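so im writing up the methods section and need the Aminopyrimidine aminohydrolase record in one place, dumping it here so i stop losing it
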Amino acid sequence: MNHQDLINACQQDWQDYTEHPFVQQLANGELNKHAYLHYLKQDFLFLKHYARAFALAIFKSRTLAEMREPLPSLTALLDTEMLHHVEYCGKWGLTESDMEAEPEDFGTVSYTRYVLDTGMAGDRVDLFAALAPCAIGYAVIGQQLLNQDSTRLDGNPYRSWIELYSGDEFQAGTQETIERLDSMLAEIPLNSQRGQRLCEIFRTATRMEVAFWQQGMNAAR
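--- predicted struct ---
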């Protein structure tokens, strides 16, 4: 099996995630500012747990090669992506201390703890299956938004978000994630109990992504 099998096993949930109204309104510039600010603050908290998940992947590794594998992603998260996120949020009037003090919304708690719990209870493959919807989905969304006619870049306050996730650097990083996941899945039959369990992990994490968008929309009401 491979990553596309995981997506195919939850096609409706995947569509709900990658074509969510939050994303579509962001693309045409009509997303409520308060929804976006809530998303930015919660995404900061999410990224901290995302880094913890990559640290857990090292803990769960058996060989030195396996231990080295997640290290670039962990280093990039802590040294580069979190810094860029803080700098970007500063342009929206949010400081790092503001975001550190922000309470975690229910969707953030549910999603991040699900990923960490999956990794703790299972193995590296379980963990990376739970992490996959985030990295793969954002790359898919970035490309879709860049190519669809309804996306407006000129005068769109969210243009930089679209350009980030459709950009070559993020797309290349996602391809590396896909190749790593596919190598883990290659020897697992899709219709086996193990394969179906991984599909369910991926589907649940995808549903969590839908809830993550929705909590931003709900914050604007």
